[in-house]
Each structure stands twice: as C-alpha cells, then as structure tokens.
C-alpha cells in the first residue's frame, strides 16, 4: 500500500521516490585515461523504509552474484517498495573485464581497501568512491562472492554474529551455515558493519561459473530479507529452519600432504568422518598413496576443484558438526541434491568398503601390489 512517504535517494544526484534508475557511475580511470564506470541500479520505493545494498564482483572473477544483482534490479518495482534497493552490479570493473579476482595489474584486493582513501592507491580510491557514494547511504548490505578460482564452496554466509544487527541480517537472509567473524581489515562488510550498516557476505559456488540453482536460492533468501525488513510487503521467515554458526576454532583447511592426484574418499554426503580418509593422493604409478585423515567429523563446505595438488595446497574446507547437524545435512542432500547448496566435483566414494576400512586406520599399511624388483613402494598416512 502506497502512502508516498519515500525520500529521495542521494548519491551525487537524486533518485526520487517511485523511480528506478540505471546508471554507469565513474569510480576511477583506466590506463587509457578513460573512466572506469560501475553499473548501478537504484530502485527507490514510493514509501519510506530501509535502504539495502546488494553488491557483486568485488572480486572480478566471482560472477554468480552478478546474476543475482541483475535479477534484483529487474524484478523489483519502486511502486511496491518501502525503502530503497541499491544494486551494485560489478564493483571491480577492471577485474571483471579481465576475468581476474584482483584489480589488474598490480593485484590490489578491492576487498581489503575499504573504506578507501582519496590519496591512497588505486584500489583505495575506487573503494572510497563506492563507499562514500553508495554504501554509506544504506542501512543494510549483502555482498555476493564465490570461492577463489579452482576451488568450490557451498552456499554459506560470513557474518559477525556477535553483532546483533549483523546477526539479524544473516538470519533474515535465512543463512543456514554461517562462518562467524568480523572479517579482515579493509573488508567492505567489516567496515560497513562497524559503521552501523550491518552487512553480510554470501559465498556461493565457483569463480568463472554461472550456477543457476544457487542464484535462485540467493534470490529467494534476498526476497525473504526484503520482506523481513519491510522493503516489500510479503510473508517472511525470521530465521532459517536450521543453522550452524561456525566459530573460528570449529573449521579447518585440510591441506595436501603430498604432490599428485587427489581422489576424494567421502560421500555420498558431504561429510568427512573423524579418523577416516578425506582423500588419497597418489603418484602416477600408484606406488605411493598418501591418505589424508580427518581430525574431526565435519561438513565439507569447500574443496579444491582441481585434482592435481602439491603439499600444502588446500583439498577441503571442513566445519565440525554434531549428530543432529549430520541428520539435517543428510536430509537436505536427500531432498534437494547438491545443486542448491553447492557443486562437488569428482566427489564420491570410489573405493570398496574393504579398502575404505583399510584407509581409515591411522597406522601406515603395506601396499598389496605384487612384489617387484623396483624399490620398495611406500604408503603413508597424514
Ligand atoms: Zn570474493
């Protein structure tokens, strides 16, 4: 219902209540001296209400969120809004043009450059314009990311849950898995949240990929968030049906212990079991097999997308879960499959139960290949 109480939205121009405006906004200059412009849509509702920004491609190769923002910009009508939706389609335009995470060519991380500065490096200058013109004019924010290239991440939220205002945003987005923490210095969500603009980061899928099922989930959750905060008039849930808030000590990057080919040993659910094999790394002749063992039972929230590894490279990102969590995760996977929560390449238990049993032991075992005249093969555990 319209009561026409909306206010103009000001960046350095004005978008009047009831107007949707698409603009290209200059945030810097390219090496040719021409403007770097970011695509922005401002949907200013006829009624007053909170101002929510949604942003994507802070890292230029993380494109799932670009589709989310494009859809938001298209589907909401200012005549039906109470408040404002500010769509920052592509924050890092130079990176996006080059399909690169960072600002080319000196690898500035735009997401460590906030709130920016007028006299700083090129990243800080761009951040300053984005922050002053758009972010600081908003009340709430959702910033969309994916994993870095050659990694996969399930759909999850990163948010400072110790801040009640941020937790409210995370819950309104129906965040099931939340990595709790304020984030690094210079991160947009951290700076915005500290300045009273509670902001969360959504991680979804892979860099360089368009994963429609996850985009749809993000749009559904955003719709719930808009309804919860009264930006749109619709039914909403106040929190997700299940939530796992993960503290800093409850997650672990599991790293390769050898170079070679990685075979994941978990499945069919994205769960690794304490004391059991996460993956086996083998050389080309299968003379050496290194088993990477899980130190706790956990949900695989991320993993390498590339099966070729060297010692120290990440093979999986795992968060601890209890038995109740496990049941719910299994139900979700049984009901929805994997597509909505994430992609798991080359996932699966490709070993027989007997082999699995052998691999689950902590003690090194003797390989069962026939004796050869070559040097003694070794098998190690890690
Ligand atoms: Zn990112």
From TrEMBL:
Keywords in alphabetical order: Hydrolase, Metal-binding, Zinc
InterPro entries documented for this protein: AstE_AspA_cat (IPR055438), N-alpha-Ac-DABA-like (IPR043795), N-alpha-Ac-DABA_deacetylase (IPR053138)
Basic and acidic residues bias locations: 352-362
Sequence ranges of Acidic residues compositional bias: 365-375
Domain Succinylglutamate desuccinylase/Aspartoacylase catalytic: 49-225
Names of required cofactors: Zn(2+)
A GO term for molecular function: hydrolase activity, acting on carbon-nitrogen (but not peptide) bonds, in linear amides
Gene3D superfamilies (alphabetical): Zn peptidases
Disordered: annotated segments: 352-382
Protein name: Deacylase
């Amino acid at each position: 219902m319209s009561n026409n109480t909306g206010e103009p939205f000001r960046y350095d121009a004005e978008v009047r209540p009831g107007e949707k405006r698409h603009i290209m906004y200059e945030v810097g200059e390219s090496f040719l001296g021409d403007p770097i412009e970011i695509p922005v849509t401002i949907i200013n509702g006829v009624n007053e209400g909170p101002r929510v920004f949604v942003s994507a491609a802070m890292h230029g190769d993380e494109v799932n969120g670009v589709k989310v923002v494009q859809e938001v910009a298209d589907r909401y009508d200012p005549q039906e809004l109470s408040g404002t939706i500010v769509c920052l389609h592509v924050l890092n335009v130079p990176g996006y043009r080059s399909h690169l995470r960072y600002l080319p060519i000196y690898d500035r991380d735009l997401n460590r450059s906030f709130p920016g500065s007028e006299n700083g490096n090129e990243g800080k200058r761009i951040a300053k314009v984005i922050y002053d013109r758009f972010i600081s004019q908003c009340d709430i924010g959702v910033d969309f990311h994916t994993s870095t290239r050659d990694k996969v991440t399930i759909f999850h939220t990163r948010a400072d849950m110790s801040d009640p205002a941020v937790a409210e945003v995370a819950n309104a987005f129906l965040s099931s898995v939340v990595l709790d923490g304020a984030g690094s210095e210079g991160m947009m969500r951290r700076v915005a949240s500290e300045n009273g603009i509670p902001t969360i980061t959504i991680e979804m899928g892979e860099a360089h990929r368009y994963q429609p099922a996850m985009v749809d989930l993000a749009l559904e959750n955003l719709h719930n968030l808009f309804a919860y905060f009264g930006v749109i008039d619709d039914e909403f849930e106040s929190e997700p049906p299940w939530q796992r808030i993960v503290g800093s000590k409850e997650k672990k990057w599991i790293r390769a212990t050898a170079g070679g080919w990685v075979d994941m040993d978990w499945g069919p659910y994205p769960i690794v079991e304490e004391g059991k094999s996460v993956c086996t790394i083998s050389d080309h002749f299968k003379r050496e097999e290194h088993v990477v063992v899980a130190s706790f039972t956990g949900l695989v929230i991320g993993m390498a997308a590339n099966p070729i590894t060297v010692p120290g490279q990440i093979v999986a990102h795992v968060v601890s879960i209890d038995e109740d969590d496990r049941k719910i995760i299994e139900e979700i996977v049984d009901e929805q499959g994997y597509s909505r929560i994430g992609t798991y390449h080359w996932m699966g238990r490709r070993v027989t139960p007997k082999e699995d049993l052998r691999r689950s032991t902590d003690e090194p075992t003797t390989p069962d290949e026939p004796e050869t005249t070559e040097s003694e093969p070794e098998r190690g555990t890690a």
